[in-house]
Amino acid sequence: MKKAIVVCLVIGSFIFLYLLSIPDRPDTYVVFAHATNLNPELMTALTNRLQQNHVSYQLDTSGNVFVLESQLEKAVICCS
């Protein structure tokens, strides 16, 4: 009886550790600012504020600004 409990605890522990090791959903980039709403001065000011506040961003070929979905709230706060 004690061996069965120990085996169940060991198996349960391995399952728990496996579930902890599974990565969460990968973070994706979302549109933060469209290029049609930005002139060069605004684009520079926006990217400077994002850099100063350590917000990860990307620019596409059209000039749209994307930020990580997990950092969207931080981007809104720093650029408002």
Protein model, in words:
The chain has 80 residues and is an alpha+beta fold. The chain has helices spanning 2-21, 40-52, 72-78; strands at residues 29-33, 57-59, 65-68. It has a 3-stranded antiparallel sheet with strand order 1-3-2, covered by helices on one side. It is rod-shaped.
The H-and-E topology, N to C, reads as: HEHEEH
Strand content: 15-25%
Q: What is the distance, rounded to the nearest whole angstrom, between the alpha carbons of the first and last residues?
A: 64 Å
Q: Going across the biggest sheet, name each strand in turn.
A: 1-3-2
Backbone shape: rod-shaped
Q: How many strand elements?
A: 3
Largest sheet: 3 strands, antiparallel
Percentage of residues assigned to helices = 40-55%
Which radius of gyration do the C-alpha atoms yield?
Answer: 22 Å
